[in-house]
Specification:
about 10% strand, about 50% helix, about 300 residues, Rossmann fold, alpha/beta, 8 strands, eight-stranded mixed sheet, 12 helices, 2 domains
Amino acid sequence: MPTTIAILAPGEMGSAVGARLTAGGARVITSLAGRSAASAARARAAGLEIADTDHALVAEADLVLSVVPPGEAVAVAKRLRPELARIATSPVYVDFNAVSPDTVRHIAAALADTRCPFVDGGIIGPPPSPSSRTVFYVSGDAAGRVAALREHGLDIRLLEGAVGAASALKMSYAGITKGLTALGATMMLGATRAGCATDLATELAESQPHLAKWLTRQVPAMFPKAYRFVAEMEEIADFLHTDRPACEVYHAIARLYARLASSEGAGDIDALARFCNAPGQAQEQTRAQVVVAPDSPR
């Protein structure tokens, strides 16, 4: 029998992971509950089976992979908890979301009475494709059981350490890459307002060519994803909560991404696109209203 994997949810990353696993010979099931027409189309294009109920989603699964926006990770686990506790099998639950170690430990505690082994995970890289480098880090006592996914096409890396180690790595990496993107965007906008955007672009190209190339690629790529980065930056702030200045930096970055994702940030998106010579990105940007609540409980 092929390995049966339940994936929540079939967004851009989840569908791509499912497609890779299906191509590698696994049976992949997902749910379209509350999902958009675009998610449904992605799931079907990836060859994923569609479960009508949460029971059907997890009843035959060997592994359950949670791949949802970070703000939904706890709610998804709590939603599946009754079914995971009820079924006779005990699939491995892998939280592959961009959440802080404290949040992932909270999720593990919420599922503790289901008897399902829990694995902490972190994905570094874009949705899997033939040309991408996408690595799946896992930690915790049951992490070795996820290594079988290597046979189905995923680059699984086992980390030493308990639940929380993989999330700490993800937070640290995303804090650097998405943090630098935010800092670059901030100073591009500052230069634009001061009237020296062209001069800054020229100086960066001459004195920091690698950084200039990276930023002019990463900043436009951020436009359609900014709304998704808000909760992730709040999770990074939570990860850094013992270092108050650092924590406040990421709360501020979350607010920056929230503004860029809203109608209020339309002019900033256009200015950044001009700085990066990517005007088409601005016209194609899909903006979403985002409410930032840095002090809300997780």
